[in-house]
Amino acid sequence: MAAVEASGYLMEQEVATQLERRGFNVQTNVAFEDVDEGKSREIDVTAIKRSAMNEEAKLIGIIELLVECKNSSNPFVFIARPKNEGDRHRHPQEFAFPFEYKMTKPLDARRSTYRERPAFDHLGFDQVFDAHVRPWKAVQFCRIDRSGKGWHANHGGLYDAIFYPMAKALNARRKEMPKVRQPDDWRYIWLFFPLVVTSGDLFLIDSSVDAPRPEPVDHVSFQRELKSGKMSGNFMVTFVRQRALESLMAAVVDPLASLSADLIEQRSDFVKTTELPWED
Questions:
Q1: How far is 48 from 272, CA to CA, in rounded Å?
Q2: C-alpha to C-alpha distance for 125 and 95, rounded to whole angstroms
Q3: Alpha-carbon distance 193 to 147, whole Å?
Q4: Among the listed residues 98, 24, 73, 12, the one whose alpha carbon sits nearest the alpha carbon of residue 249
Q5: How far apart are the first and last CA of the chain?
Q6: pLDDT (tens digit, 9 = 90+) per residue, 232-266?
Q7: For the residues of 143-212, what is the DSSP string, one character each?
Q8: Which of 246, 242, 196, 254 shows the shortest CA–CA distance to 221?
């Protein structure tokens, strides 16, 4: 039993059970295709739940978690700095919306110009998504390993072992989403949350202060741009302590699920109105 507990197998089942209690349809050890290498990979836990449905408007809200479990006593440490103006205009690739929106401005009797309005902003997700609202961003992370009598900040291989596979799993899952082929097809607000659940501690270091020091945190969202032959974009993975998984769900996931439900069930006309007045 000690060997099995150290392996992390039981941790995966504990996380799966916790999410099932929240009403998610859960699967463990789910296969996906690694498009870069043409191989089959696995994600430890996937959990999916319908957050809302409007039959008349043909709109559905979906929450889906892609979870990798790390059973380790070694802590992860994240380096943070204040966001800049460009960061405030970035939108999560993990969220899929049912329509594209544009603002139109008449130029004369025959001509007009238009500008796209991101659905993330227009529908109000920019106001409630924790990783977007907070003023700082995590720019680096490492794992603290024992080295002789001291400690070593290890970042070698962590991106390949943790971050890239999560981004690949997200891309593979997005390709399986139902395609909209006809105007009257069902459409979705589909929110993906790639999560790394760790049994160890998480620390955040604010690099902008005079005397930086690690402060314990329950969860950290880390975003990184990836570019390869078959995958590119900005991807976000949230690291969370296993004991804080419920608080993450309450603070991060539930507000977005509630907003999706409100939009779909109470404000479907707003969601489906894609031509917007011009804003300077």
A1: 24
A2: 10
A3: 34
A4: 24
A5: 64
A6: 788 999 999 999 999 999 999 999 999 999 999 99
A7: EEEEETTEEEEE-TTHIIIIIHHHHHHHHHHHHTSPP--STTS-EEEEEEEEEEEESS-EEEEETTSSS-
A8: 196
